[in-house]
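Minutes, project check-in
Item: structure for the 104-residue chain
Input as provided by the requester:
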Amino acid sequence: MAGDAPHSTRCPGPSLFGEPGARADTYRIYDDDVWGTITRQRLPIVERWPTAIEDGLHHLEEGSRGWRRMRETQEYFRWVAQETNELMDRWAKHRRELFADAPE
């Protein structure tokens, strides 16, 4: 898109760039905890699903098989979001213990 920010400013972590005259792409990592950063960046998407599903539930007959599946899906995404937040906290602690020089 015209005027769109470069990918590296929208998505910290690995960035793709080309060296002038090079025939291969090069990647740079701009974050010390790249996987933790990527996971946390995607968490808001998961956290929005329960609300979106709530909107859809109003169109289904309460107690129907479809309603039940949607409610279970809603609870699944709530659970995943909560567990992911807790998992990322545990990962940060584990990372600090494993790599003493890891930044906070």
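Outcome recorded: The first strand starts at residue 14 and ends at 18.
No further action items on this chain.
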